[in-house]
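Q: Hi! First time doing this. I have a protein sequence and I read that you can turn it into a structure. Is that right? Here it is:
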Amino acid sequence: MKVVGVALLDEFSEHHGDVRTQVRAWLTEVEETDWGNPQDIKNRFPSASFIGNDRVVFNLKGNSYRLDVKVNYKNKIVLIKRCGTHAEYDRWTF
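A: Yes, that's right. Below is the predicted 3D structure, encoded as structure tokens:
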């Protein structure tokens, strides 16, 4: 998959160093995979939440942080929408 918005992940990791390793691992894994449908994601990331319109929220570092992405399965693109703490996630509107 091609990941768009990596700069947002880098900036987030700079501010939240305790999740840096997990963000890098997530990014590496996603870049090396080929998701064809939501089930492919669920098979690898069972705690991922599907919120409609091809949007997926991943839990990072347990449940401490959240990563919101939009997946274009046909074009093999993952767009980083936003990252945040669990508390910030509670205030997000979709």
